[in-house]
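Write out a record, fold above all:
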Amino acid sequence: MLVAGYITWHAYAARTAVSSRLGGLSVADVVNQGFVVPTRNAGSWLAAWRSLAGQRKQAKQVIVAVVGVLVALPLIAGVMALLMSSDNRFASWMTGLGHSFGAFNLWSVLWQLSLGLVVAMYLFALMYGNAHRAGVDAITPERVATWSASVHKVAAVAVVAPIAILCLAYIAFCVAMGSYVFSAFAHTLPPDFTYAQYAREGFFQLTAVAAINLAVIGFTYVFVRRHDGVYPVSLRVAGGALAGLTLLLIATAMSKMLLYIGQSGLTRLRLYTLSFMVVMFVVFALLCVWHIRRFRVGTPVVLVVLFAFLGLTWANTDGIIAGYDTHQYLDGRLTTIDVPYLASLSSAAVPSLIELQDQSQDATVRMKASAALGDWEAGNVPMNPLVRQPWTSWTWQSGRAVRLLEDH
């Protein structure tokens, strides 16, 4: 997702995108920018290297500078020793820097550089092609339109009939299952079920059904024959009904998951599952509206998926999970709380563990939270202040956790 988002953004930044706006043609941009342009410019990095190697004057200056540093190295070392002896804080900082270099894993860095070199060659070919407009016109809106028109071969009636049968099957399913399917809307649990069983029962099947329905709608739009370029009304009705029934199925799955979360709390899997269902619900809602009233549905669909993914990427998911479970437990809505699970989360769970240690009425919970905080501090806060962890391991959550523990 990140690579696809980057190369699509790069196409718009370089003004070489297939379409001037996000939408259905964004798929063509991903294919063009992700595969065609880098492949057509695969040798550009070699030409750039030869051009750089041909600049002998600059290369000679670099060599002279390196030799100068090596000659002056004893002088630099002496000055650093004097500075360290004059200030203890600077001496401790340099000692910590020395420990970091001592823990330097050369083979790991060489392995990462070897993989990074391949990625760098790929990105260089992509940037070179966009900068010089080389190989970026393999896919154009005209060619996409021509290809799209050439595949509109399937008769509408051949698709309407299967979609109608699917819709009838979904209606029959909802009628037959009745109270079992919709009991979660009333916050009631069917007999002979636990909350976990009820939430998981049929969930993956309903997800597969939603994916199939999405593929059916996409197939219909791409391959069904138009009359004078107009999308048939029969397909708009059938597709709209299919999207609406899919919304109902997703809503029932979401209600079951929310009922389960309300009784057992949040976990990573439950949060990601719920986020996925929300995105699916919004996408099918847009498709349902599109079948009723035509508009450029590709643009909002791409934006919803992109921002949902970026939002989940940037969100403090572990903090959200720990905070929700802790507040629900302290407010009495959850009868139990899984402290070891919260402790297994990242540094973002430390504030919630502190709340449990200070505010829980259960001595066992307070003891478990205190032990979890002790284990986290032992593993993340070095006993020797001169030993510093690599700066790359720092996160905002870990820094906040250290400050809270110091102030606590």
Observations:
- The mean pLDDT is 81.
- The radius of gyration is 30 Å.
- The CA atoms of residues 207 and 308 lie 18 Å apart.
